[in-house]
Each structure stands twice: as structure tokens, then as C-alpha cells.
Specification:
mainly alpha; 0% strand; 192 residues; 2 domains; 8 helices
């Protein structure tokens, strides 16, 4: 754990370096994030009526973005299979970026599901043991299980590879191989 904390602090130091344009870009992104948080707080206070989901355009925009992000997350398999399974050297150099992109896309997909629920208090309804998920008949339940499993597997693989990269050592396929092989069907199932 100490090693993870040290590497996280090193990464934070790298993020804090940059020119004036870089910090302007970070400030712009922070304003966008703050705007989204304020809009979500308004949705929690006033209800789902603020989203305009009754309108076909608003609902279509939401669903199309969710579907696009699921596809982006699943597309990482195009990098993972040649890199980890077939040991194709040129792809190994960029496979970590694909994994991190998949983690980002899955996180945004899960946030879309959270916003679609309306209130954070409704989350317990879709938890596997506590709530009534209506699995496997509910597509939302399917998305919750598959996307969260896929996120956990991607996070484990990416964190292991990044830690090995920082130490200058080669990662062991015996460690990440089983996780990669499990994640490949999950990638396919996430687009269903």
C-alpha cells in the first residue's frame, strides 16, 4: 500500500507541472465539473423532471452518449487481445492508454446510470444482494453488474501494469493473464 501511495504522490507532482495554457485548461474543466455537480444537486432537489427525459431529444441524447461510452469501453479489447494474448510488441506500448480510456468510459457510464436513477438513495435498489435487481430480465441490472465487474478488472490490470512500469520491471502475464481473459467476455457483454 505504501508503494501505491508513493506512486500516487509522484503522479500528482507530475499533474501539477505545466504552463499557463495547461492551468487555464484545468480551470475550464473544473468549471464544467462544477456546473455538472450543481445541475445534479438541482436534479436531486427537484426530481427527474429537470432532466427533460419526457422529451425524445433529451432522452435520445442521454441514451446515445451512454451507448457511445459503452462502445468506447468495449473497444479496448482491440488493444488488449493483441497485446496481452498474442504479445504483439507495437500494441503493448499503447495498451495501457486503452485500459485507462476504458476505465474512464466505464466510470462515465456508471455516472449516467446514477443520474438516470434520479436520487442517490435509489442506488440500493440495484445492488445485487440488498435490492431487487430483477436480474436477468432488467437491462439496467445487467449493465450494473457487467460494467462494475469490467471496471474492477480494468482497474486491477491497469494499476498492476502502472506499478510495474514505475519500478522499471516487466509485468508478469501469469498475474494479469487470468484477469484479461475474464475481462474479454465482459467487454463483449457490455455492448449487448
Amino acid at each position: 500500500m505504501k508503494y501505491y501511495v508513493e506512486n500516487f504522490l509522484i503522479a500528482l507532482q507530475q499533474v501539477a507541472k505545466g504552463n499557463k495554457r495547461y492551468f487555464i485548461w484545468l480551470a475550464f474543466l473544473s468549471v464544467l465539473i462544477a456546473t455538472g455537480i450543481i445541475a445534479y444537486i438541482g436534479q436531486v432537489e427537484k426530481g427527474l423532471i429537470t432532466t427533460g427525459m419526457r422529451d425524445q431529444v433529451s432522452w435520445g441524447f442521454y441514451i446515445s452518449n451512454f451507448t457511445f461510452l459503452v462502445g468506447v469501453a468495449a473497444a479496448a479489447v482491440l488493444l488488449v487481445v493483441p497485446a496481452y494474448v498474442y504479445h504483439f510488441k507495437p500494441i503493448k506500448e499503447i495498451v495501457l492508454f486503452g485500459e485507462l480510456l476504458a476505465i474512464t468510459a466505464i466510470t462515465m457510464c456508471i455516472m449516467f446510470i446514477m443520474v438516470d436513477l434520479g436520487q442517490p438513495l435509489r442506488v440500493w435498489h440495484i445492488l445485487p444482494v440488498i435490492g431487487g435487481m430483477n436480474f436477468p430480465s432488467s437491462l439496467l441490472a445487467w449493465d450494473v453488474i457487467v460494467l462494475n465487474s469490467y471496471l474492477i478488472l480494468n482497474a486491477l490490470v491497469a494499476s498492476y501494469v502502472v506499478c510495474k512500469f514505475f519500478t522499471g520491471k516487466e509485468y508478469k502475464m501469469s498475474v494479469i493473464g487470468p484477469l484479461v481473459m475474464i475481462s474479454i467476455p465482459l467487454r463483449s457483454a457490455s455492448i449487448l
